[in-house]
Write a structure and sequence with these properties.
Elements lengths: L23 E2 L12 H23 L7 E9 L5 E9 L3 H13 L18 E9 L3
Parallel strand pairs: 1-4
Antiparallel strand pairs: 2-3, 2-4
Helix pairs in contact: 1-2
């Protein structure tokens, strides 16, 4: 018997993403507001880097994570290094929060482009992000 394909697609970086609707979830289409602005393209690259890690870690720990949402805030410096990762709210369990923090910390985030760094406070980008697991 052949294994069935999952109902929801996994992370697909080749998809054209045009609008960010609030973060990463295991339901619906993820998207980023990247209509050709340098900041929009950078946010998409940031989302792709974090998303690929998050989907990998969640699939690996699926038996431990519970449904809910983890809201986080962190800062990306000019070199693409993540700083000050904080969990703002967690309606899931600690396993999902841990996976989400790990995804952000271990993501290979590119440096902030030189043409947008001057427009950011202190040359850093503060990011609010949410990760959700919903039942099917």
């Amino acid at each position: 018997q052949q294994p069935s394909r999952p109902q929801t697609p996994g992370f697909q970086p080749e998809r054209r993403v045009t609008r960010l609707t609030g973060g990463i979830t295991n339901r619906g289409r993820a998207s980023v507001d990247a209509i050709g602005t340098p900041l929009g393209r950078y946010k998409k690259a940031l989302s792709d880097a974090i998303g690929s890690r998050w989907y990998y870690y969640v699939n690996d720990a699926m038996d431990m994570v519970s449904m809910g949402t983890v809201q986080m805030r962190f800062t990306v410096d000019a070199e693409g290094k993540v700083q000050n990762v904080r969990v703002l709210n967690n309606t899931a369990n600690e396993a999902l929060a841990s996976v989400s923090v790990r995804s952000i910390i271990e993501a290979e985030i590119p440096p902030i482009p030189k043409d947008i760094a001057p427009s950011l406070a202190g040359g850093q980008l503060e990011v609010d992000y949410s990760f959700s697991i919903v039942g099917q």
